[in-house]
Design a protein that fits this description.
- The protein has about 120 residues and is mostly beta strands.
- Helix content is about 0%, strand content about 50%.
- It has no helices and 11 strands.
- Strands 2, 4, 5, 6, 9, 10 and 11 form a 7-stranded mixed beta sheet that branches. A 4-stranded antiparallel beta sheet has the order 1-3-8-7, with no helix packed on it.
- The protein is globular and about 40 Å long.
- It starts with a strand and ends with a strand.
- The relative contact order is 0.32.
- The model has no long low-confidence stretch (mean pLDDT about 95).
Amino acid sequence: QVRLVESGGGLVQAGGSLRLSCAASGRTFTRYTMGWFRQAPGKEREFVATISWTGRSTTYADSVKGRFVISRDSTENAVYLQMDSLKPEDTAVYFCAASGSIVLIEAKGADYWGQGTQVTVSS
């Protein structure tokens, strides 16, 4: 079992930045592919970014490429999402996810989820 707890969400103006954190506990964190997903009201949960268990490989949704950076710190059992140049359309609940698979780009591929953290970007 892996427990994930997100933090760092909040209200920010368009063009601003936020850094989300995901603290992991439980089974061997370093063996999991980690990812961030988001869900806006009335929409399906969508992929944002993923990072391999080694930390060497990252993948981003086209909508956030060049603005968001995912990273992980295995010594801290944590995953981060640095979000810059935020836009109103980035407003959503952001979820941290863990998968025992190599690839994590779809919500159905996650084995564990955090409870989510709200990000609101005002125009």
